[in-house]
Amino acid sequence: MRTELVPEGLAAPAANYAHAVLSQHVTRMLHTSGVVPTRPDGSVPESLAEQAETIWGTLSALLTEADMAPENVVSVTTYVVVGEDLATVMAARDSALGGHRAASTLVTVPALAQAAWRMEIAIVATA
Known about the structure:
Layout: E1 2-5, E2 20-23, E3 29-31, H1 48-65, E4 73-81, H2 86-97, E5 103-109, E6 119-126
Parallel strand pairs: 4-5
Antiparallel strand pairs: 1-2, 3-6, 4-6
Helix pairs in contact: 1-2
C-alpha cells in the first residue's frame, strides 16, 4: 500500500508531485539506475521531448519486466542539463505517470556523462 502524505501546514508542492509517499507492507522494490535517452539502436534523439519519451519508454519496460505499472512508482529523480525547458520534462513525467503522483526531485546539472544526453531519470517503485 502506498499513500501520499499531506500533513497540514505545508505549502503545496511546486508542481504535480507528492511531498512524500509512505509505502507499507512492501513485498518487492524496484530501484533503477539513472536511465539515459539512448534508443535500442544506440542513437540519442536530439529534442528534449524525444529524450524524455525515450527515457520514460525504457522506464515503462523496466516496470513491466518487474510486473509493475506507473502506479507503483514512489520516487522519481530527474537530472536535467541547465538551460533546458523544465516544463517539457515535468509534462513528460506527468504523462508517463498518468496522473499518479510520486515523490519527485528535479535537479539541474551543468552536464551529464555524454554530451548528447540532456536528461536522465531514476525511479523507485514498490509492490
